[in-house]
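CORE FACILITY INTAKE
Project code: CF-77B
Contact: R.S. (postdoc)
Sample description: multi-component assembly, two entities in total
Requested service: structural model of the whole complex
Turnaround: standard
Below are the sequence entries exactly as provided by the requester. Do not edit them.
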Amino acid sequence: MTLFRELFFPLLAVVAAFVVAALLILAIGDNPLVAYGLLFGSAFSWPDGIGYTLFYATPLIFTGLAVLVAFRCGLLNIGAEGQLYIAAFATAWVGIRFAEQSAWLLLPLAFMAAIVAGGIWGGIPGVLKARFGSHEVINTIMLNFIAVALASYFTQYHYKVPGDPIMQTSEIGAGAHIARLGKFIPGLPERIPVNLAFILALLACILVYLFLWRTKWGYELRATGTNPTAAEYGGISVRKQIVIAMTISGALAGMVGINEVLGYRYRYYDGFSDNYGFTGIAVALLGRNHPIGVIFAALLFAILQRGGIHVDGFSQNVTKDIVQVLQGTIILFVACESFFSGQFSRFGLLRRSKV
Amino acid sequence: MRDIFTIALIWSTIRLATPLILAALGGMFSERSGVINIALEGMMLAGAFTAAAVTHAVANPYVGLAAGMTAGLLIALVHAVACIRYRADQVVTGTAINILMIGMPAFLSGAFFLSSGSTPQLPKEQLIPSLPIIAAFLLVPIAWYVLYKTPFGLRLRSVGENPEAADAAGVRVWRMRYAGVLLSGVLAGMGGAYLSIGQSSLFTRNMTSGRGFIALAALIFGKWRPVQTMLACLLFGFTEAVSIQMQGVVKLPSGDDIPVQFIHMVPYLLTIIVLAGFIGASRPPRALGIPYQKER
């Protein structure tokens, strides 16, 4: 029954969003079935459809997990976008600065850069909340803009190849490249950028699950999220938990840098993120703030992202912007769970306690 | 250095501050009633697109402005119903609206104008470059008066501070919150309309580029008070005006341009600092973000 409910409401929200978007497509005089056919049709072809869907899902799994960990502690991290920008730039910086080093040294360093930079950028609003009580939502919004500006400044003034018209850094050392999955899977060409970071994302799901539900620290974090007052009475330092949760959250968001820089572009590309951080909120909510749910929700949004390109190319009036409309509507419906569930709303995960 | 600080700079500051003032005053009504409004960005986008599209259709910018404000109102209604009636998380709903409004105007532009997300260029005589500026600065004392000197303002503030007590005193909490959120939509819609049919002459994809969030920053920097919020908007408008004027004019001693990125960061850094209480505490309304449900 519980599993049924966990699955039923997210599915209902998705269906409702598709109905709303279908009405919109009808209103502009196009056929929603054709548009949806294009949206989903391309996602399951082998190797391009599946390969690209997994590639697009990778950053969304990371940001979904990031939002999840913060949410379980009663915090809303809408700063994953800034955290992943800072982390991606730090990753590229290490890859450029130590380009001559061997992979044995360079790869761990680059991984560390992504995780530590993201963790610090996520930890800042955690510390600000724990120390000064300032709201993490406002601070993460502000830090998003600061992160984008900082990364763009360093790219433009210090790490760009002179004369390059594109806002991107020079290339990282070859030792910092991670393998594309095409290297291991027959039939999957290496031009498709899905890489080992996807495996890392799945591993991260397992680790987050084990941490949250199988360790003392995870228990303390969740206890803080469920009822901070009771947690404090039980001897848990709520302030410490806030900092820990935000740091882990930022570190997870930062791992997007591994996929982007080490597995895909091999450089920092200004403005690379297609709203991964904000989509992460949708992924976590639709995935019921559970790692398994996050994987499926990330796949759904990845399919939409991939399909949007086809809609753009082959449809008369419908553009890829329908994806964002769908995404916003899905979050809206998930957030209004009581709209569907009425009396069941008290089970909703969306009730955040004030810390 | 001298030639930068001219009348042109002051004028540019005022023009850049106008959409911020409108949206921030709107945000003030919403947040003072207890509903977080990070959807200002989305409401501005709705206003900007609708104003430009309707002005193009009827060739009358006043109708366009009214339509833009109505669009903001409708988006605010979605936010209000979700947050008040269905007690959805206000930040999550706001984020959803922002994502939705990145897509929706571009989607509709693509369908109606067969463009890649912008509306057709409007002729000069169909623009209203000064009316929203006058409105914005007139609205500051009006907002102050409404908030502090009218029964409506007292009730609005009371449901944002202590809804239980307000309810016990006979104030209809939900109704006041609907009023606050809807007002924010109208004003943010006007701010957005100014961008497309005042400052510029068409709607372009994501044309607010974060102004809704700067307005939110100004609201916090102004401690949720109308006059201070206006001053914060002027400050942020000034930093933007300076960064535009400085480009290519003022050089560092080394001969390089001053990086605009650092000037862009100013509003956000100031907000973090003031929120942490370094420049006098900025305290949000006490019931901000908490849905209200009558005890049964």
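Facility notes:
- Chain B has a mean pLDDT of 91.
- Chain B is about 70% helix and 0% strand.
Invoice: internal transfer
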